Structures are given as C-alpha cells and as structure tokens.
TrEMBL record:
PROSITE patterns: CYT_DCMP_DEAMINASES_1, CYT_DCMP_DEAMINASES_2. This is Riboflavin biosynthesis protein RibD. Its cofactor is Zn(2+). Binds 1 zinc ion. Its EC number is 3.5.4.26, 1.1.1.193. Pathway: Cofactor biosynthesis; riboflavin biosynthesis; 5-amino-6-(D-ribitylamino)uracil from GTP: step 3/4; Cofactor biosynthesis; riboflavin biosynthesis; 5-amino-6-(D-ribitylamino)uracil from GTP: step 2/4. Pfam families: dCMP_cyt_deam_1, RibD_C. Residues 5-127 form the CMP/dCMP-type deaminase domain. Gene3D superfamilies: Cytidine Deaminase, domain 2, Dihydrofolate Reductase, subunit A. In the C-terminal section; belongs to the HTP reductase family.
Length: 361
C-alpha cells in the first residue's frame, strides 16, 4: 500500500471517530485523532463535548510512551491556544511524535496555521490536506463561521408532489411519513439553533426540539436553541415551545413576561444581521430554518441559504393548499436554481439535498 493510501485509510478512521461527537460538541468542532506506529493503531480519540479534552489528548493518553516516533492523524488542525484545555499542538510536541497528518486547516483566528507552525518549529513533519473534503463536511458551520462570521444555514421544507406544505386552513400534520420525520431529528440535532416564524408556532404549537434519534441517548444531545421571529409580540405564554424557556430565543418587541421565564430576547433586525449575531455573540454556527413560505422565501431570496433539504411526499394537496414558496417571478431569468447533492428514499418519501447556484437561464 502506498504512503498516500495509508494516510487516507488512517484519516478515514479518524473521521469516523470524529462523527461520534456529531450531536454533542456544539459549539466546538467535531474532531477525531488516531496515532499509528509501524502500521499499528496505538491510540485513538474524539472530542466528545465542549470543556472536555480534545481528540489528540485522548489519543495520546492511550498511546502513552509509544507515541514517541509515531504518526498522528487529526481531522482538524491541532489547536494552538489556551482555552478550557491546553494547546493540542504542544501536547503532540511533548509526546515527541514524528509526523502529524492534518485533514483540514482551522480558520479560527486563534489557530489559523499556528498549530501547524508549532509542530514544524519542533521539527515534526506535517502534511495537510489528506481527505480534506470529507473532514470539512464534519464541520461546515464551524468552518464557515470562523471564515466569514456567518453560520451555515439549512432550510428544511416538506411538501406534496404539487409543492404544497399545508392545507388552506393551515393543517399540515402529516404530509410526510414517520421515517422522513425521524430524519429531520438528525438535522435538528446537529444544529445550534432552529429558526421559525410566529405563524408556524401558533398554527402547529410546535416544539422544534430533538425528541428521538436512532441509537442515540437523547440526554447526550446538545439541544438546539429555538428562535422565534415574532415582530408583533404574539407568542402565547401557553405555547409548548416555552416548556423549556431557557432554550428559546425570541426576536421581537421586549416582553417582561418572557424575561421572567428566562427567554433570551433579541431586538428586531434584518435576517443577515440576525445570523451574524447568532454566530458572533452566541457561538451558533449551524442553523436549521423550519418555517412557513414567507420566512423560507425571505431566506432564499436574500441569498442566506447554504443548503435546501426538501422532503417530497407522494401526494397531491390541490391548488387551494399553501405553497412552499411564495415569491412572484415574471421571467425565467428570475428563477432560483439549485445543484443536487443527493437523493434519498425514506420509505415512501424522497429527500433532496440541494445547494443554491448562481446559474442564469
């Protein structure tokens, strides 16, 4: 096996380890590490939760003195700063590893090449970019926020074959089946926040939290904040979403009764500014939008959506049912186009994952 193939093999093991923290590390990134010597695995670890040791620390503890002269594979550039834990780059130097292979650099200004430089200054061979695309997918929100100050935004919609999301009355339970609805729990669980509009809360009395996830202990999941856009202050105090008020944020006029419950209140601001606020002030790097047509359309038309997750059920709801998108276009050139990432069948439903494109017709 070539050196490149070996590096890719071991990095893929590190990536699989990183996935174990998928639902629990927010706002920290998902990171995995394996330490290899003479083609044998001698240490492995992943970052489980903010405040706990990083992946490299767990792997080095397991490898112990065998780490000297070994190769460490890390999915994200080792940190170079003192936070809740000491710098991992210095831990690797202290362990006297021979080589460090990094999947993707860390754009966090506190790291941003400094981790690699610490290793190189100590005479450690460093290689960056092995399985970079796979590793980036683990931390799309973190990487985007560190680079741009904006979170990664996923817009989720569920519709009929004729593009309808609810009956004219607002009734919407249920268009898609149980398997598709369970799939939504995953996207909520990886998100730092779920954004919705007040009309959705009033119509559905929704909770928008993570209630079940296959083979995952619900107690280990870092629940997303639920953010309600309520410009006229209409949120009922009896709404189910307020049963756990400490995880609720409301953008709207100040209400003392919400403050008394412990709800975080945000001043009314444009959607782009709201997203910047969530990223910079609250360390929310992945956002899931689950809303009606008006808010969903606003996110799309303002170019704030990074990924569209569309569930399509094999049913027709008719022309009087509510549309999933309510913009009015006159010309084909105004259309919003998407690039298809993947198609997945979920029992009788279909899930499309798409990213907006700038392609003009």
């Amino acid at each position: 096996m070539s050196e490149l193939k070996k590096d890719q093999y071991w990095m893929q093991q590190a990536i699989e380890l990183a996935k174990r923290g998928l639902y629990s590390t927010k706002p920290n990134p998902n990171v995995g590490c394996v330490i290899v010597k003479d083609d044998q695995l001698i240490g492995e670890g992943f970052h489980p939760k903010a405040g706990q040791p990083h992946a490299e620390v767990f792997a080095l503890r397991q490898a112990a003195e065998q780490a000297q002269g070994a190769t460490a594979y890390v999915t994200l550039e080792p940190c170079a700063h003192y936070g809740r834990t000491p710098p991992c780059a210095e831990a690797l130097v202290k362990a006297q590893v021979k080589k460090v292979v990094v999947a993707c650099p860390d754009p966090n200004p506190l790291v941003a090449g400094k981790g690699v430089q610490i290793l190189k200054n100590a005479g450690i061979e460093v290689e960056v970019g092995i399985c970079e695309d796979l590793a980036e997918k683990l931390n799309q929100g973190f990487l985007k926020a560190m680079s741009t100050g904006m979170p990664y935004v996923r817009l989720k919609v569920a519709s009929s074959l004729d593009g309808r999301t609810a009956m004219a009355s607002g009734e919407s339970k249920w268009i898609t089946g149980a398997v598709a609805r369970q799939d939504v729990q995953h996207w909520r669980a990886i998100s730092g926040a779920v954004i919705t509009g007040i009309d959705t809360v009033i119509a559905d009395d929704c909770q928008l939290n993570v209630r079940s996830l296959d083979s995952v202990d619900i107690e280990t999941i870092a629940q997303p904040k639920r953010i309600i856009l309520d410009r006229q202050g209409r949120l009922p105090l009896a709404a189910k979403i307020l049963e756990n008020p400490e995880t609720v944020m409301v953008m709207g006029p100040y209400r003392q009764e919400l403050a008394d419950l412990g709800v975080i209140q945000l001043e009314i601001q444009p959607l782009k500014v709201l997203l910047q606020t969530l990223s910079k002030q609250y360390q929310i790097y992945d956002v899931l939008v689950e809303a009606g047509a008006t808010l969903s359309t606003a996110f799309l038309q303002e170019g704030l959506v990074d990924e569209l997750i569309s569930y399509i059920a094999p049913t027709l709801l008719g022309k009087s049912a509510r549309a999933m998108f309510n913009a009015e276009f006159e010309y084909m050139a105004q259309q919003l186009r998407f690039t298809l990432l993947d198609v997945t069948q979920l029992d009788q439903d279909i899930r499309l994952r798409l990213i907006p494109t700038q392609e003009k017709v």
